[in-house]
Amino acid sequence: MATDRRPLSPHLQVYRPQITSVMSITHRATGVALAVGTLLLTYWLVAAASGPEAYAHAQSRLSSKLGLLFLFLWTLALFYHLSNGVRHLFWDAGYGFELETVDKTGKWVIIAAVALTLLAWIIATA
Amino acid sequence: MKLRTPISLARGLGSAKEGVNHWWMQRMTAVALAPLALWFVASLLYVVHADYDAMVAWVGRPVNTVLLALFLFTAFYHAMLGLQVVIEDYVHGEGAKIVSLLVMKFLLVLLGALSIIAVLRIAFGG
């Protein structure tokens, strides 16, 4: 039997990106990014446990331009994953499946993620 | 009365009663992480400006020590469950899948242990 000629499920690239699909893969991507970010978190805590010098060194690295960029992206990923995670929990409970609602809550999630990130950085740099 | 046939009992396959454990634990940890992550980021906004002594004092307050340890444990657990699904989705070779899962889980347990022990060491002034 020629298995190479059987119909395939449509490849990702033939679909027009929609808010639902893009937000879904972004949820996964931010999850992976946050998991990688635990390296930074562990480094910071271990430095603090190693004494004042190691901590000062870690702090100066994290407050460098590159460090701040990573931290900013980390907070954005965290707030996105957190907000969209709450949206997922409502779906798990059986609410919010109507297309209109899905679009609306999706937009709220994006607004919440950006707003919380900006708020955190305004407070942090104030 | 057992409704299963003798041959099915002999094979020992079938429900292990743990099929939904992964799914359920991912939701449980998500629910726990929502407030814990918000608390953690809010605390960071305070801690980023603190010098070493203030940071150590902050970690050492009993409520903070406990919440930090719980946050770290839950976050690493949640990350492990999430990355497991990502690996199972995208790594298709059986051998490569098992190796990736092992490496990922060992790494996250290592990072989780490092970060939690670091917190305890700071708290107990080791």
| CA-based shape of chain B | elongated
Count all strands of chain B and give the number: 0
Number of helices of chain B: 5
Radius of gyration of chain B (CA) equals: 20 Å
Element-level helix/strand string of chain B: HHHHH
Task: Indicate the CATH topology of chain A.
Answer: 3 helical TM bundles of succinate and fumarate reductases
- Order of secondary-structure elements of chain A: HHHH
Shape, principal axes of CA atoms of chain A: elongated
Structural class of chain A: mainly alpha
Describe the structure.
The complex is a heterodimer of chains A (126) and B (126). Chain A has 126 residues and is mostly helical. Chain A has a single domain (23-125), classed as 3 helical TM bundles of succinate and fumarate reductases, CATH 1.20.1300. Helices cover 78% and strands 0% of the residues of chain A. Chain A is built from four helices and no strands. Chain B has 126 residues and is mostly helical. Chain B has one domain: 3 helical TM bundles of succinate and fumarate reductases. Chain B has helices at 6-11, 21-47, 52-60, 62-90, 94-124. In chain B, α2 crosses α4, α3 packs across α5 and α4 packs antiparallel against α5. The longest helix of chain B has 31 residues, at 94-124. The N and C termini of chain B lie far apart (59 Å). The mean pLDDT of chain B is 93. The A-B interface holds A 28, 31-32, 34-35, 38-39, 41-42, 45-46, 48-49, 52, 55-56, 75, 78, 82, 85-86, 88-89, 92, 120, 123-124 and B 27, 30-31, 33-34, 37-38, 41, 44-45, 48, 52, 55-56, 59, 75-76, 79, 82-83, 86, 108, 111-112, 114-115, 117-119, 121-122, 126.
Record the SSE blueprint.
The complex is a heterodimer of chains A (126) and B (126).
Chain A: H1 19-50, H2 52-62, H3 65-92, H4 99-125
Helix pairs in contact in A: 1-2, 1-3, 3-4
Chain B: H1 6-11, H2 21-47, H3 52-60, H4 62-90, H5 94-124
Features:
heterodimer; A: 126 residues; mainly alpha; 3 helical TM bundles of succinate and fumarate reductases; 4 helices; B: 126 residues; 5 helices; 81% helix
